[in-house]
Structures
1.
Amino acid sequence: MSDTLTEDKVLLRTGYLWPISSTHEWARIANALDILIIVIRTASSHTTEIEHENNNALVQHALNAPVGVPLPSYNDLLATVRIQLPFDSTTVLSDLVEHRFMIETFWDRAEFIRFSGQAYRRVVFEHNKWQWKAFPLQSGNFAQRSLVEWDGRDDLGHYISRDYKTRRGPDILSPACVICGPEEATMIRVRYTPAPGHTRDFNNLQTFVVRGSTMRQVEDHLELEVTTTTYDIVAVIKCSEAGFDRIRLYDMYGRFFPAPMFIRNDRMHKVDCKYFSLDWDVNEPGQYMLFYAKRQEREFPDFRTPEALLTAYKLMPPSMCTSQN
């Protein structure tokens, strides 16, 4: 994947900066949607091209709203989003992230899918030479299946790697089969609900390595090749069934972004929001959404300081920036 750090990616990767709309009367739901906006922006910053046109109203807003300006009418956005992503006072944020409409309009991008969508079956040819042949898959929404459901019992990298191992059928005569991935996936999302006694601290969640598989054309046949891909955490959501959900963003070194800020008149201002606090830790029981980005060879600058954020903001094209009194 080309990971050129274009101006729009710079701003998305800094949190865009952050939504400033959580004072709506539906405070808990508005807070959840703010977090979903942050997730959309963060994930989009790790794609080859940012898709600014989308029939998902929340995605459309997340990738096109000017920076540092409160929404003129959050009610209007909520009304539209509620038709597309039904919610009520009991809605859990992870269900919104993984709602069918989000999968069909956002998570269906090839860069968010950790399977190639193609399976291969191993067959024997003359001289006992193994050969792989592609065959169609009968089932599976790969955008939906790309979500990893994990309880913390196994190492995350090993747990995910099992999906790409060669598998045999029910008897010795059954051919071996394999589904390739996740080499092309720039982001992997994990719903982490630790089993009792299996919570993990941040150091154990910060990064993982997946041993995947891919097919390479070698002369007149296909050969199975093992791939190794490293993923680093970029966002953690602590989901709440009744209170406010929380989110933290991280850079490629595992350093989290400090208190959310936004820019107005070329100055930094603190965001008054419910989605950021320092009073929780990922090693506590509960449910979390973890988002991992594929490690790139190049190093990105540190966007966490106000000075760096202002610099990033000033790089932006006028259409994505605004200045109001």
Note: The CA atoms of residues 52 and 63 lie 6 Å apart.
2.
Amino acid sequence: MALEEAEREQREMMWTPTPDGPQPDVHPGVGWIPNEILPDWKLPNVPDGNGTSTASFVLIDMTDDDGPSVLGTQGKNCPTSCRPLRAKQARFPQRPYNRKQRFLFAEDEKHTPLVDAALEDLEDPTLKAEVIRHRLFISKMRRTARHMAHLRRKFLAYQEEAWATYEHLANANAAFRITHMINTDIGGGFGSGARLSYATRRDGMDVMEDPWMEELTRRENFCEWCRREDHDTRFCHFLPDTSKTNATSRIPIVTTDLHAKFPSTTSTSRRHAALHVLDAPSDVVTTSPKSLDANKGVMSR
């Protein structure tokens, strides 16, 4: 017993608050207030960490870029913990808000100063923090939407330029010239083909000789836009596609490669051909490339 008593006294001496060590229940400093807003927030006891108790002091940060947050601690020089500051729930379940009620929390409206004044007089920092969080993420949505619109315009411009290269390649008879060179020299290991291994030449020739091999190799495990695993992101049907969509509705209608069916047309005539197909009744839209080949590009009932 004497030994246990001596060990207890030694531990108490080690836990005695010092100017440089943890000082539980001592005011941490400027900005900290006694915790009266989060009575259910439990933090490890100081200094031994055994058990938990309600945070003694909190520090509210309404300017956090991720939304208002609150810091909690047991005292001066004690460890701190951080969590989002959310509105305290009412005693009884509430109905979801309708559009008019949601409009109350909008920013930069004629009634916004009245709402802000009411929040000040209510003296509920959790409610004020929730309104600030709502307006913050609405603002983030607005900025993101404008950025997405800018990226959409860039995506369509890149897409048009990529399609234009097909026209120039077709006008240069590139497919025939390249294929002829591969069949006569490269595939046999002559010319620049001498730098390629036999396996590389064989695999490439197998692909070129297969009339049904026309699908691009998958480069992504899943689509970053819709999260499906059956296509790459740039082929997602949620993205705008000038070759497959009506310029007015932006709704995918035809899933065939129109330019592949009209390889020698100019960009203007290709658009006219595409619009001619897109203007067809919905019950005659053909989505299979083979059906277009069979009908020589003519859709019929």
Note: The chain has a mean pLDDT of 76.
